[in-house]
Amino acid sequence: MADHPLHLLTEKFLKREITRRQFVKAAGALGLSLPMLGSLVAQVSAQEGMSSAATAENVAKEKYSGQTLNVVWESGLQAQDPLVFSGPLWTEKTGVNINVIEVGGGTELFSRQLTEHLSGTGGFDVLSAFPSWMADYVFGGVVEPLDDFIAQYGNPNDANDITDLYKDLGKFEGKTYGLFDDGDTLVLYYRKDLFEEHGAEFAQAMGYELAPPTTWKQFEEIAKFFTEKLSPDVYGAAFGRGSGVFWNTVMFMPHFKANGGRLFDPETMDATIAGAEGLRTIQEMAHMNRWMPPGIEQLTAIDTFQEWLAGKYAMTWFWPPLGRWSAGMAEGIEQLSFVPESKVKGNVGYALLPGDITQMAGGFNLCVSADSPNKELAYLFIQWLNSPEISLQRVTLPYALRDPFRLSHFASDEYRALWPEAGDYLNTLLQAGEKSSLDLLIPGAQEYSDAIDRACTAVYAGTDAQAALDTATQEFNAITDRLGRDKQKQAYANYLTLAGAYPSANLVDAPSNLEVE
Q1: What is the tens place of the pLDDT at every residue in 157-216?
Q2: Verdict on whether the full-model pTM lies above 0.90
Q3: Domains of the chain: total
Q4: Is there a contact between 109 and 72 (Cβ–Cβ < 8 Å)?
Q5: pLDDT band at 513; cut points 50, 70, 90
Q6: Are residues 273 and 139 in the same domain?
Q7: Which residues contact 60 (CB under 8 A, 6 or more apart)?
Q8: Do 441 and 456 belong to one domain?
Q9: Which ranges in 289-369 belong to alpha helices (H)?
Q10: Which of 178, 310, 399, 471 is the residue whose CA sits 20 to 30 A from 124?
């Protein structure tokens, strides 16, 4: 066995003669299945030394038992993780208590953590931050650099267990300020039973196979087909179009990028969203609404996912939890009593958005507050939470909304056995983790997002598309001027280095041949 290719490959990796990525690729070339590959990665990691979870537990128990950490978490289902599972488990293993501070999501969470920093009370130890907030938090001095802690206590393999898209989302200008903790990619869900039942009729009428759409033109044609044939019982599609939060922005971004759009001129930081690419995108989005349920312009993604579970749509989009709930994983779970019983169980397929692209929309980094009096302990806790073995348990909780982000999550036999189609689901999420567009990760990201949302909702209400985009351009430029063009140019240049800033899209398709009004 000493000269077996797999043994030789493992030896090369342990001697650092090849990188982890080269090791994984070469092992896959030897014919290992994804679950077998995940098991091998775990075994090799174990040979390299103590896991990051065990290190964090041992140090925290020895140095900090009896102390308390104040941990900020998004309220609701997200907070059930530290309240019900990880917090009590950490206390059991280390003697360190966790005080969970629940804060409303989105802008409320962003503002509360920033305000606490400005007050200087030191009341927060662990922060929860969208990747799109990191530039604001770094420039504002809100978050502590983590590289020294990682060098002292971390296992280098933990970073190598994360896809390229995700691994740098906690970094800014080369320094680490957060541990990425939530693969919040959008997924296109479609009804396999409806696609099979009506496939022959669709192919005869349209001249191509009924399958998950690869272009937005195909998406609209499929939605139109089902709506005209099955409504009002079933509509071809439904996406949350209501204003606020970021329902419209998270759909505009990958669609715009797939159409070849860019948000700024990197030299001047002038907004470029009102060009031909932006106009095409917002017109296509508005035109699709006619094949969605009446009143779609007022519905949010939360509204539409419940109708999806009731079997009312042929296609929809949502974050990864909807895939689990569609499979019936919410049934019998106290925290998920609000989720309707799934009427689509066993009939759901998963795909990326048209253009072979999707959106990394939201997500969380685990951060240490720069004002914490317990910085080392706070870091040990987030290292433990984020470690491969503990994070796997957290992303398989049915109620906590954390989504897979590690290669070992996607390869997990345990996860793949949760429902019959779980392997297809995880394979799609792995693709999404390699092909996602990223939210805009520069200061003022929420403000820019709000401007896009306002433009979309204005067009849905009848405003001329070019006029709406021109207004958004003025708002973009005003935000940039207020925050400082040089500072924004610096942050945008950093954003452009990230794998998902402008991913390659395969949307080589003419604009819709349906008249755009």
Answers
A1: 898 899 888 989 999 888 999 999 999 999 999 999 999 999 999 999 999 999 999 999
A2: no
A3: 3
A4: yes
A5: very low
A6: no
A7: 90, 94, 95, 96, 377, 380, 381, 384
A8: yes
A9: 301-309, 321-326
A10: 399
